[in-house]
């Protein structure tokens, strides 16, 4: 796993790999999470909704994706990170930071996102990148039935740059 990781735009051919990664990351971070959709349904949604309406960037090491981010404009919340998932074997290597820099470079530093409340690793990651809790829910309106958090980062928050994240322009 010492291979270099580069970022690229996602293509429809990535959808199944990203769906598998999505499920693996969530299972590792939140054991026992009730997945509302199987891998094939998630792949279909990634290819026909996420990739069509929003930007999707992939972290790749040559043998396939090790992470991805989906981001864009949300009608209610404005600039938003919609998905950010890493292969559990590739966490804590700066890849998530690099992916977040991609969204920031395109959308600006004011971003929002939702995070399942019990995902302690994701919460710590977002808080370390200047996000703060704006609202919480009891999970009644979520597909997983899990309490969630709306995180926001305003334009004044410290932002990791591409250089700091080890990314190349």
From TrEMBL:
Q: Which Pfam families match?
A: Acetyltransf_7 (PF13508)
What region holds the N-acetyltransferase domain?
5-153
State whether keyword Transferase applies.
Answer: yes
Keyword Acyltransferase present in the record's keywords: the answer is yes
Segments crossing the lipid bilayer: none
Task: List, alphabetically, the CDD domains matched.
Answer: NAT_SF
Keyword annotations for this protein, in alphabetical order, are: Acyltransferase, Transferase
Name of the protein: N-acetyltransferase domain-containing protein
Q: Which organism is it from?
A: Roseomonas fluvialis
Lineage here is: Bacteria, Pseudomonadati, Pseudomonadota, Alphaproteobacteria, Acetobacterales
């Amino acid at each position: 796993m010492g291979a270099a990781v580069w970022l690229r735009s996602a293509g429809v051919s990535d959808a199944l790999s990203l769906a598998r990664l999505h499920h693996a990351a969530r299972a590792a971070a939140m054991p026992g999470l009730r997945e509302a959709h199987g891998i094939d349904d998630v792949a279909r949604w990634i290819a026909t909704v996420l990739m069509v309406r929003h930007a999707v960037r992939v972290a790749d090491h040559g043998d396939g994706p090790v992470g991805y981010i989906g981001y864009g404009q949300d009608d209610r919340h404005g600039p938003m990170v919609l998905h950010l998932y890493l292969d559990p074997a590739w966490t804590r290597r700066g890849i998530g930071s690099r992916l977040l820099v991609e969204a920031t470079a395109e959308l600006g530093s004011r971003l929002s996102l939702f995070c399942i409340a019990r995902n302690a690793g994701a919460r710590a990651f977002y808080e370390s990148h200047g996000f703060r809790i704006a609202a919480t829910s009891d999970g009644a309106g979520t597909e997983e039935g899990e309490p969630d958090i709306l995180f926001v980062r305003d334009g004044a928050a410290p932002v990791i740059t591409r250089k700091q994240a080890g990314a190349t322009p």
